[in-house]
Amino acid sequence: MAWKRDDQPTSSQPEPTPVTPPRPAAAPNPAPVSSEPPRRTERATIGPSIFIKGDLSGEEDLVIEGRVEGKVDLKQNNVTIGKNGRVKADLFGRVVTIEGEVDGNVFAREQAILRQSGAIRGNITAPRVVLEDGSRFKGSIDMEPPRETGTSSPRPAESHRENVRPVESLREPARAAEPVRSETAGVKASA
Amino acid sequence: MAWFSSARSAAVRKEPPRVPTAVEPVVRRSLALAALFDEIRGRKVTVLDLGSAVGSNVEFLSHYGCKLYIEDLYAALASRVSTGEEGDIAGPEFFAEFLPVPEDTRFDVVLAWDLFNYLRRKELAYFGEQLRRFTEPGAMTFALMSYHKQIPAQPFRFKIQDEEHLIYDRRTAAERPSPRFVPSEVTGLLKGFRVDRSFLLQHGIQEYLLVRE
Asked: pLDDT tens digit string along B106-165?
């Protein structure tokens, strides 16, 4: 079973990163007005043995543990490249989390997160970018300034206490053996 | 109490002198960095970071809404130049290929950190040509030069603590000779740049804010 769809993630699968932005615990208005349609909470997984060449689009969160070449377009949803994931494509998502290797550009509407095990060779465009200790990155980061929260000038004065190890040079991502094409209802692959 | 005192003093004598460990980060005030942030506040700038990618620096710079390029110069040099061969100088071709950016890219700020200490004089001149190619008049370069005879064998990893403080994170205890560039030499090698501000710090580091002419 190459493709898995799970409405309720299990512990054996990669944990998605924080998916939605923090929301107030108790909204005074029972019917909050939102300009965006409610997101589906399903999550699709491309397994480690899968190779997809083409474009991926859909309306649910996606975890890639296999190989993808082309384009991943899930602007309204979260995209996670798992530790086994090898992606040679431009990625579009709401929160894009990289634990594997990406050779391409990353466009995140909310946040791009490069985990310790992750590597990106390409450019990142996102309002917030997190590079974790030990991650490998080569390229550019285009960051929009944060929305005004009352302070007039940006003056970040807090200490950054994290320890970040040097970024190693990027290696060519390993290639999987057998190419397979696949498609699900939520996430479509088109060659 | 005599036995106690003598025993204690003997114990103290046996203790080896404390040598600072190589990995202990040190926080230093940075006057040039403060001047740099004063210059770019309120502007969306394009920054070239020549050091290794440091998450906290990215997070810090995100408050400025800049476009940040990270190109680890030392890693690129180390992977290209074979070690132990004297005279194996990275030539103009290396530096021309080092920055894989579109030709129309222009950097407003270059964070060179202490990397110029790890370039030979010719290499610094070659690299200066590339910096000139990708900058316009007014662009600023932040650099740290050491006046010590010896410098760490690898560049420090610098973390921006705030606008006026840098964390010097030393990666290795090994050392190598320092080129000890003097200001006239820096501007002589980096043609097209002038020293806008320079601060000699107490710990033997001279900070430079170079401006493209």
From this structure: 999 999 999 999 999 999 999 999 999 999 999 999 999 999 999 999 999 999 999 999
Residue A68 contacts residue A89 (beta carbons within 8 Å) = yes
CB pairs under 8 A between A and B: 99
What averages of pLDDT result for each successive group of 10 residues across chain B (213 residues)?
Answer: 44 50 82 93 91 90 87 88 61 88 93 95 93 96 94 94 94 92 90 94 93 95
What's the CA gap between B90 and B93, in Å, rounded?
A: 8
Exposed/middle/buried for residue A146 (C-beta within 10 Å: 0-12, 13-18, 19+): middle
- The yes-or-no verdict on residue A124 having pLDDT over 60 is yes
Distance CA A87, CA A46 (A): 11
Give pTM, 2 decimals: 0.71
Q: Which long-range contacts (CB under 8 A, 24 or more apart) does B82-85 make?
A: none
Question: What is the predicted ipTM?
Answer: 0.74
Q: What CATH architecture is B22-212?
A: 3-Layer(aba) Sandwich (3.40)
Residue ranges of domains in chain A = 1-6+40-145
> Which single residue is written with the structure tokens 């310790």?
A116
Cβ-defined contact of B70 to A146 (cutoff 8 Å): no
Please give the DSSP secondary-structure letter assigned to residue A169.
Answer: P
Nearest-angstrom CA–CA distance, B180 and B184: 12
Position A181, amino acid: R
- Distance in Å, alpha carbon of B55 to nearest chain A alpha carbon: 4
* Cα A2 to Cα A181: distance, rounded to the nearest angstrom: 10
A68 in Cβ contact with A175 (< 8 Å): no
Q: Do A154 and B63 touch (CB under 8 A)?
A: yes
Probe site for chain B from A133, A143, A147, A162 (most B CB atoms < 10 A): A143
